[in-house]
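Appendix B, record 7
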Amino acid sequence: MKRLSLTLAACLIGSAALAAEVAPKDVPFDEYGAVATSLTGTAGDAANGAVIAGTKSQGNCIACHQITALAEVPFHGEIGPSLDGAGDRWSEAELRGLMTNAKMTFDGTMMPAFYKVEGFIRPGDAYTGKAPTEALTPILSAQQIEDVVAFIATLKEE
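Structure tokens (predicted):
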């Protein structure tokens, strides 16, 4: 019995190690822009997601959205909808899709694609002649996306 338990534990650990992060180019959007499975295979950390959502150099969700749970963070925007109650309005798959690339759901949205690395227009050559040529990195990592999704999913109607 002990050997069976150890074998099972080793298999589970091995399969967790094989669960690779989904690359930005490989995100599986459904026809409505939702992303059903985690980008990392790991659950998000809602507390870390709240920090990312309120930090200007990271997600900076409050630049465009009102979030009562982050009332202590100054300068909430009004461009996007309030995220209060977002956990009731959207599923985790829909939230993940919106965070990854909102244009897959709302074509004309101003929301940035937080997990996209290609298909951008680089206007720098027209203005400075110095548009970057190296590969772009996503604004947020796959785990940061999962953390923000976990946080926003906690924002329920009161």
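Remarks on this record: Confidence is low (pLDDT under 50) at residues 1-18. The helical segments are 2-18, 46-54, 86-89, 92-101, 124-127, 142-153.
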